[in-house]
Design brief:
The protein is 31% helix and 27% strand. It starts with 6 loop residues before the first strand and ends in an 8-residue tail after the last helix. The chain has three domains: 47 residues, Uridine Diphospho-n-acetylenolpyruvylglucosamine Reductase, domain 2, CATH 3.30.43.10; 116 residues, Uridine Diphospho-n-acetylenolpyruvylglucosamine Reductase, domain 3; 90 residues, Enolase-like, domain 1 (2-Layer Sandwich), CATH 3.30.390. The strands form four sheets. Strands 4-5-10-6-7 form a five-stranded antiparallel beta sheet. It has a four-stranded antiparallel beta sheet with strand order 11-12-13-14, sandwiched between helices. Strands 1-3-2 form a three-stranded parallel beta sheet, covered by helices on one side. It has eleven helices and 14 strands. The radius of gyration is 19 Å and the shape is globular. Bound molecules: flavin-adenine dinucleotide (FAD). Flavin-adenine dinucleotide binds next to strand 2, helix 6, helix 7, helix 8 and strand 10.
Length: 277
């Protein structure tokens, strides 16, 4: 099948996209890489009357440091991150996450903002944004706001984004030299969405210990605090620990349990904190 008839407009500025979204009263959709929206339109699960392309806006395609955070435009592609954007601020985490998304053709088009707005529970940026406590900057007719990633994802494919709002930027922490991270996921085949996913970020110097279990039925489960993360390490082999997050299927519990153990092993294998001579 092919998409239903629609109008297409490439927007030059965030304000233009927001104005057109509001004027369309729910009949328009933003598109970026179209890697998720395109198939949905072809299947006629989505039938917007107007497609507003934000993928070439300068304001949405840049990346850099600002006020001590690493800020990426929403339309930054996975490929640009894979190729090094954010490598230093994230101490290699963001490029590794990007490189594990689908295959290069998808990564050339797919964007961070599109992935977050689509909010597939198995999406890599959804879990990574929750792990790193990223901020999602949204612009709408009622103004601009920053939503913490953990408040942004409400359920599978459901976010705090209104129909007339646009994700403009995402701000990420700059990881310190003491930070360590681990990111493990299980995919049935290379290039497929994950069936299980665990990520960890620790930084004792800044009292940070966060762990995310992703690829669940809804938003990722976030565990925060050194004692809480240590407790999970103790129980990594016990599938019963997934009761608390409502994961009941024995196969998926087992997979997540293995990811948990592998993520802690990856964390432990990382070099120790850098010291300045
Ligand atoms: C074969 C295949 C395999 C994949 N495997 C993975 C995988 O392993 N891991 C993974 O994480 N992802 C995977 N993906 C998804 C991929 O990462 C997509 O890029 C992503 O889900 C959507 O990004 P996009 O830029 O293409 O968004 P689009 O498809 O253009 O849009 C998706 C949704 O986001 C909205 N949107 C887009 N940009 C904005 C914005 N700035 N503000 C507000 N709303 C916006 C659109 O209106 C739409 O609702 C896969 C996709 C394919 C086709």
């Amino acid at each position: 099948m092919k998409a239903a008839d629609l109008q297409y407009a490439a927007c030059a500025e965030p304000a233009e996209a927001v104005g057109r979204l509001a004027a369309a009263e729910g009949m328009a959709k933003v598109c970026a890489g179209t890697q998720s929206l395109g198939p949905m339109m072809n299947l006629r699960l989505a039938q917007p009357a107007l497609l507003l392309d934000v993928s070439r806006m300068p304001a949405l395609t840049r990346a850099g440091l600002r006020d001590g955070r690493f800020v990426t435009g929403a339309a930054l592609t996975h490929a640009r991150v894979e190729d090094g954007e954010g490598a230093a601020p994230s101490r290699g985490l963001l490029p590794q996450v990007a490189a594990g998304i689908a295959y290069r053709a998808v990564r050339n088009r797919g964007t961070l903002g599109g992935s977050l707005a689509h909010a597939d529970p198995a999406a890599d940026w959804v879990s990574t944004a929750c792990l790193l406590d990223a901020g999602i900057h949204v612009l709408g007719p009622r103004g601009a706001r920053r939503v913490a990633a953990t408040d942004f994802f409400l359920a599978a494919f459901t976010t705090a984004l209104a129909d007339d709002e646009l994700i403009v930027e995402i701000d990420w922490p700059v990881l310190s030299p003491q930070a360590r991270w681990a990111y493990r996921k299980q995919c049935r085949k290379p290039g497929e969405f994950a069936e299980a996913m665990v990520a960890i970020w620790t930084d004792p110097a800044q009292a940070i210990a966060r762990l995310v279990i992703g690829a669940l039925d809804g938003a990722p489960a976030v565990v925060s605090g050194a004692a809480e993360v240590a407790a999970l390490r103790e129980r990594a082999g016990q599938t019963a620990l997934f009761d608390a997050i409502g994961l009941t299927d024995p196969y998926r519990r087992q997979l997540q349990s293995v990811m948990l153990a592998r993520a802690f092993a990856q964390l432990d294998a990382r070099p120790g904190p850098e010291t300045t001579p």
